[in-house]
Amino acid sequence: MQSFLDPNAPLVQIGDMNHLMYLIGISVILFAVFTFRKQIKEYPKQVMLGILIVSVVQRIISASYYFIVGEFTVTDSLPLHICRVVCYLIIIQFFVRKPWLDQVIFYWGIFAYASFVYPVGISPAIHMLGISFFMLHSLIIIYPIIRSFINGFVPSIRGALQAAVTFAVYLTCMQLLNNAIGSNYFYTEDRPFLNDLNEPVYFFLNMFGIGIGFVIVALIIHLVINYFQAKKLKTENSKEKTLV
């Protein structure tokens, strides 16, 4: 039980057994989502209610851990870390149902992919925080896919710009908070890389680099969609010519 709650448990290292467990776990969940996509389309209300319940439970598990170990502070629990904010947005979206919010959730949620590929400060899989991590980041990854099945959600270039602007506001607020209380939101203080850059350069590199990254992702997605649509149209035309 101590290891399940141990605040000093060794962190995940890239390529170790815990990292592999996380990667296998998200792969299984993605496989299940695509396997049951018809059922997701048939029961959208029930699926979205399930998403809401998982989101709330994840937030309770995360907060409960910090309460149990006595570290529920802004600097230790980091309740405004970006993926946790995305979880709050998913909860809010269940009630407000704004199309632009789905766009922001998708683009901000790209960081969840990065967390699985390059885990930084992540607890082991058999740990309360590890379970919380897996629930949160898996939820963020599958949410846009489920929205796509339910209402045809597609990440847009406009959505990328909206996400970039809102991210710039978020990053600015987090930087001010870090300077005020010594927290480490968005790893601006204790950085996983680029430690030699001074603070202003690192800040603006994040702000503009990530905004540009959102737009690049949007362009790639639309290129892929257009490619498959063109290929499908070509196949249909070929079939029509054959029938004639």
From TrEMBL:
The keyword Ion transport does not apply. It comes from the Bacteria. The chain crosses the membrane at residues 20-36, 48-67, 79-97, 104-122, 128-146, 158-181, 201-225. InterPro entries: CHP02206_TP0381. Keywords: Membrane, Transmembrane, Transmembrane helix. This is Conserved hypothetical integral membrane protein TIGR02206. It comes from Jeotgalicoccus aerolatus.
